[in-house]
Amino acid sequence: MAKEKLIRVKIKKNKYTKNQKKEAKIKILVYLICLLVSFASGLLIGTKMKIRKNNPKKINRININKKLDINSFTTYSQYLEDFILYCIFYDIENGFYIDVGANDPNHISVSKYFYLNGWHGINIEPLPDMYQKLLNHRNRDINLNMGAGEKDDILSLYRQGVCSTLNKMYSSNKTPVMNITVHPMSKICKMHVPKNEEIQFCKIDVEGYEKYVLLGYDFENYRPKVFCIESTKPGTAIPNYDQWENILFQNGYALGFNYSINRFYYDTKVDYLKARFLNLENYIRDYKNRKKD
To answer: What Å distances lie between residue 253 and 31, 203, 240, 291, CA to CA?
Structure first.
């Protein structure tokens, strides 16, 4: 009788051990499946993050229902720069601009119209009195009391009428007003352009220092759709764009329009821009005729 009981116990023990091994195998298999799924998910997420990093989502502010309205437009600039830019970006709401050489925020300002209509941006102005005006009138903007150039530097600032320049050759007063801090646009944009922000336009009016502003740009990561640049020697109608225009061409921009002392260049990577320049002469004519009436 004792032997029979012993045999039965052994049989039960062997059966239990067999089930344990089976369960252990199942657990290992489930663990491996979970590990594989986790690895695949991580790989997929990593790929998505890489795609997002290389192709960041841009803020889309196009209002497809908004139409070009010449009759209600009010210009604040000297040579219809704001009107021309309006004709290009009339359907953009809450856009972003960069105004290099912003000067007075109200008098002959290229960016004032856009600011009054909900846009915001960066104003770069080295003259302390004009900078203070910007602080008083542009509280939604980022206002910087500095110059823009090819690299970080400390340079002499000269008066050029009511404006200023870092190019002594174009100054009417050869005695510098002061020394100012200068940073390249690459650094300024990296520090102050909001993440994933689209830059609609960059206006550059720096009295003969345009070349060095463009040399300091990071065209790969910060690409204004349109550049509006003063293209004559300060105080004259003599063209000087041959000194810097090639920088834009080499970085994928094309000349869209030339009016008075300014030239407008557009990013060839943005499909719709070229067509926006086609009727500008007609728009300007109609706007001027409307003002006469």
So the answer is: 55, 15, 18, 33
Residue 64 falls inside a structural domain: no
Is-contact 143 131, C-beta < 8 A? yes
> What does pTM read for this prediction?
0.78
Residues 150 and 274 in one domain: yes
Q: How many CB atoms lie within 10 A of CB 78?
A: 16
In this structure, what are the phi and psi dihedrals at residue 177, rounded to the nearest 5 degrees?
A: -70, -40
pLDDT tens column, 127-180: 999 999 999 999 999 999 999 999 999 998 988 777 887 777 766 677 788 999
Show the CA angle centred on residue 100, arms to residues 96 and 53, nearest 5°: 45
Please give the angle made by the CA atoms of 218, 129 and 261, to the nearest 5 degrees: 55
* Backbone φ and ψ of 56, nearest 5°: -60, 145
CATH of the domain at 267: 3.40.50
Task: Quickly count helices (H) and strands (E) in the chain.
Answer: 9, 11
d(CA 222, CA 197): 9
Range of the domain at 222: 81-292
Residue that is written with structure tokens 């004709």 in the block:
87
Q: Please count the structural domains in the chain.
A: 2
Beta strands at 142-144 and 120-124: parallel, antiparallel or unpaired: parallel
